[in-house]
Amino acid sequence: MNNILKADLNALKVLDVLLDECSVSQAAKRLHVTQPSVSYTLQKLRDLFDDPLFVRNPRGLTPTSRAESLRPAIKQLLSDAQQLIAPPLFVPEEAEFTLSVSANDYLQIALLVPLVQRIRTLAPKVKVALFDLDSKAAAERVRDGDLDLMLSFPQALPADFSSEELFTDPYIAAARQGHPLADQQASAESFLGYDHVIVSPTGFAFEGGLFRDLHHSPLLDKVAVTLPNFAVLPSLLSGSDLIAMIPRRLLSVMSGPLSEVKIAATMPSITVAAAWHPRLDHDLAHRWVRKLLRAEALLA
Fold this sequence. Notes:
- It contains 11 helices and 12 strands.
- By secondary structure, the chain is an alpha/beta fold.
- The radius of gyration is 33 Å and the shape is rod-shaped.
- The N and C termini lie far apart (67 Å).
- 28% of the residues are buried.
């Protein structure tokens, strides 16, 4: 039995062209090689198949019955090989997969809602599953292959993940429309004359990144309410004179009419990044999603 390792894909291509041309010279011309090269390959093919494959006639070559029987199989094999090495294509309209992303409610509201809407428009067969996991749990799921993307702050992302910074968002002060300080330049004194509400996503009251930024600020003494997320913030502000510290991107997308309170002070900011397992670096669907995510991040 002939060893398959003796088979040469290039030699099979020569056989395919010889079967089409029935001429060594014409085959050499099509293959852009010399006639001796084709003749040498033909001899190797004869040894491989233990058959003459072609016999001479006055006008060129006549395939043997063995060669004719090989014709469809060789064409199929070469076609399959070409498809195997051809660059894969990603067609959003035809794509069917489930995208899983973890992000806190701020990023779900400000970034993932428009991303999902964009995906639904371009790739209607794609399903999206959103989660709000802490960084450790999200990282474990990414490693296990159960999560495609995690959005968080750069310092919370594992060093061995692929990642990309998306944007930096400054905090602003927001209040209900009609608030005495709404849409005007407020002095530090008048700003500190009102109680404040901020979101503490750690799950513990009066903790979190913003509190650390405010550690030596007189504003910290004015924080009267903390919330675990932004969901109830518009309702809370609409019925009070509380002022909230929120990332700027939220102001235009949160439900409920809110206005910015402008103050002459440097506000802290947050940087947002996306992370994924390196095994997905070259995945076409994942690269397409990351491109859309990058575009949405730049819009605001």
